[in-house]
Amino acid sequence: MHTIDALATTLRTYLDPEQSNQVKRAYFFAEQAHFGQLRRSGEPYVTHPLAVAGILADMHMDHQSLMAAMLHDVIEDTGIEKTAIGTQFGPTVAELVDGVSKLTQMEFESLEEKQAENFQKMALAMAQDIRVILVKLADRLHNMRTLGVLQTTKAKRIARETLDIYAPIAMRLGMNNVRMEFEDLGFSALYPMRATRIDAALRNARGHRKELVEKIRHQVATTLAQEGHEVTVTGREKHLYSIYKKMKSKRKSFSEIMDIYAFRIIVDSVDTCYRVLGCIHSLYKPVPGEFKDYIAIPKANGYQSLHTVLMGMHGVPIEIQIRTSDMEEMANNGIAAHWLYKSDEQSATGSQARARQWVQGLLEMQQRAGNSLEFIESVKIDLFPDEIYVFTPKGRILELPRGATAVDFAYAVHTDVGNSCVACRINRRLAPLSEPLQSGQTLEILTAPGARPNPSWFNYAVTAKARSNIRHYLKHQTREDSVALGGRLLEKALGSFNSGLEQLPQDQLAEFLARHHYEQLDDLLEEIARGNRLPAITAQQLVGELAGGQMEATGGAQPVAIRGTEGFMVSYAKCCHPLPGDPIEGYLSSEKGVVVHRERCKNLGDMRENSERLVALRWDDKVEGEYPVELRIEVENRRGMIAIIATRINSMGVNIEKISTDDKDYQFTYVELGMLVQNRVHLARIMKRLRNINYVRKVTRIKN
Predict the structure, then answer these.
(1) In what side-by-side order are the strands of the sheet with 668-677?
(2) Which of 77, 319, 387, 634 is catalytic?
(3) Is 76 a catalytic residue?
(4) Is 428 left (phi over 0), alpha (psi -120 to 50) or beta?
(5) CA 533 to chain centre
(6) Which residues, 6+ apart, have CB-to-CB distance to 130 below 8 Å?
(7) CA 535 vs CA 431, 523, 546: distances in Å
(8) How far apart are CA 265 and CA 320, in angstroms?
(9) How far is the C-alpha of 226 from the C-alpha of 239, rounded, in Å?
(10) Which CATH superfamily, name and number, covers 627-701?
(11) Burial of residue 466, with CB atoms counted within 10 A of its CB: 0-12 exposed, 13-18 middle, 19 or more buried
(12) Distance between CA 408 and CA 399 in Å, rounded?
């Protein structure tokens, strides 16, 4: 059991007496605040914050973090306010405690939402002070160590949350020891039978391997000593969860996983790392493609080491990691290693700077996420990626998860670059945006001022930053488009009653919105545009309710004008491909908004049963954009005819979207073309030019 005296002894090794006394004062305050409270195990509650502070003290964290650890449950469990903590221990400690405190006052629809909101609050606090997450990780670690006293269902839920969120965060912050303990404890809680069996198999294998491991270790140590290198060589044990994950992902048996012998070599300097690597490679043959230099290019969490795989004695594969003692400490404790923090000036080592950069990225994601659950999914994507390294044209290295594409790269450079991205060059050649990137490639992003994110990017964007930005942009655009379209549809419907939005009394309109559970008029207009509310019925309700009864439509409404710039909430039917100049009618779909059909489209005839969903439309006088159309051309079977047709169309500046052929008989062939045109007049000109080609018998527009 932890005691304050034992903790004070640890603190005296690296803190000055004044700071140690402040930590002790925080302990006595917490002891008094939690007086009478017991843990599930029956111990006084204060043993928990004391143990959390002990975990942080082992990492040599600063006194403010330790004080926050002592007080982290005081706000939540005892009713003592943040201001009181601020008065007693200073504003920094109060902010840390508040950041770590859980959300208990808010009502949530589900447990998942509560967890997500909790994490969201923590992310905000982390942005202010990164130490919040360190205290939170220590808190979670002690809770995981004492998981056995909880009910199985609750223990499994906490274990799942730890494996999903907290273990990857610890990994991201380079805190390997904490991460491994999280994983093993979580694994044992979630799958106790599997953990027991793997542990038993590991103990058994350890006995069989002992002799060979010692032989290899001795040979490596002797060789390096002969070369004049003072090193420490240790065998490296795989932990339970990593064995389980490898068995599961690679579909290998336990014996296959354990065939690989792992060693770690600790040296005194970076220069020696590379010298030792040369010695090792001369001792055993390296496996091609298995060498990784994380010293030259560190991982995102600051991890540095040389990794190599060799074929050792008796043909057994050997994994070797070579690093300095500083790198070893960094690998184990990550951001908590060599903690430097001053209240007047924040000094950060490389790892701390990287951690803060990541937290700032979290903050950006949070601002763009629609809700807390969307945010937590984004975070899950971003945590624990398998990295690749690519270069900007100026030689800057960017780290991306494996499978990332040029879209991810563009957003990693800057959000505006991602939003206006149109094409990319990979190693100076044009490449599709969807092409997965490889380590070592140089990327150049081409942008255009009017460009905007494409919904199809979701299919291949991998990073959380890219996905959250695309989602945010499209949501924003879609809402704007929806509100504008919904306004025009409702105005048209109100016109049937000789009314309009401007003519409706504002107080009565507000009452109508409140009665139908809309916060503002834009929400109602968006629902109309999305097809969830019918404009005719909504107009009737509005006019009828506000007039105190039902009113008859006068039929004086004008059709809604289509400009071609409505955005996502107006789409054009693929069955009949309407063009400016065609008589048109719209159908209000709950998924796509208004779908524009030609008036004589066969599919539209089937929809006339739901006449309330039909919308009268017309083309605006100033229509913009290009519209798809399909032509069928009947030509004689002669060599090069398709090339002649394509050249003729291309000479008119028209883009061919698709082309296909179908043999009519031995003499004639049908050529079907899909292209983009401006209007019916433009199409007529193209058809006339095509009819003038020799051996073209017939040109018709494909209609439904």
Answers:
(1) 656-663, 668-677, 627-636, 696-701
(2) 77
(3) yes
(4) left
(5) 33
(6) 335, 352, 355, 356, 359
(7) 45, 14, 16
(8) 7
(9) 33
(10) ACT domain (3.30.70.260)
(11) buried
(12) 10
Q: How far separated are the first and last CA of the chain, in Å rounded?
A: 81
DSSP 632-701: EEEEE--TTHHHHHHHHHHHTT--EEEEEEEE-SSSEEEEEEEEEESSHHHHHHHHHHHHTSTTEEEEEE
| Domain-wise residue ranges, the chain | 4-190, 194-336, 500-619, 627-701
Superfamily of domain 194-336: Beta Polymerase, domain 2 (3.30.460.10)
Which two tokens mark 486?
């919904």
Stated pTM of the model: 0.57
Give the C-alpha distances (Å, rounded to integers) separating 165 from 108, 118, 144, 459, 461: 20, 12, 14, 24, 21
Query: Greater confidence, 508 or 293?
Result: 293
Active site residue 519: no
Please give the residue that has the higher pLDDT: either 494 or 221: 221
Q: Active site residue: 31, 43, 76, 326, which one?
A: 76
Beta bridge partners of 632: 672, 700
SS3 call for 578: coil
> Residue 628: which H helix or E strand, with range?
strand 627-636
Same topology, domains 194-336 and 627-701? Answer is no
For 30-75, write each residue's pLDDT tens digit. 888 888 888 887 888 888 889 999 988 888 888 888 998 898 888 8
Cα dist. 22→25, 29, 44, 63 in Å?
Answer: 5, 11, 22, 8
CB 457, CB 433: distance < 8 Å: yes
624-634 mean pLDDT: 88
Residue with tokens 């809604």: 560
- Give, in words, the CATH class of 4-190: mainly alpha
Return the minimum-mean-pLDDT range out of 111-120, 470-479, 521-530: 111-120
Q: Which residues of 677-696 are buried (b: 16+ CB within 10 A; e: fewer)?
A: bbbbebbeebbebbeeeeeb
User: Based on C-alpha coordinates, what's the Rg of the chain?
Assistant: 34
Q: Which pLDDT tens digit goes with each residue over 668-681?
A: 889 999 998 988 99
Q: How many residues does the chain have?
A: 704
Residue 62's identity, in one-letter code, is D
CA-to-CA separations, 128 to 279, 346, 357, 408, 630, in angstroms, rounded: 47, 12, 12, 27, 58
Neighbouring C-alpha atoms within 13 Å toward the C-beta of 230: 3
Q: What is the pLDDT of residues 514-557, one digit of tens each?
A: 877 788 888 888 777 766 677 776 776 677 655 544 444 444 45
Digit-coded pLDDT (tens) for 136-162: 888 889 989 888 888 888 888 888 888
pLDDT-derived band at 107 (thresholds 50, 70, 90) equals very low
User: CA-CA distance, 446 to 370, in Å (whole number)?
Assistant: 29
Q: Is 330 helix (H, G, I), strand (E, B) or coil?
A: helix
Show the tokens assigned to 357: 């950069």
Model confidence pLDDT, tens digit, residues 398-437: 878 878 899 999 998 888 898 889 899 998 888 888 889 8
Rounded CA-CA distance 493/513 in Å is 17
SS (H, E, C) 48-62: HHHHHHHHHHHCCCC
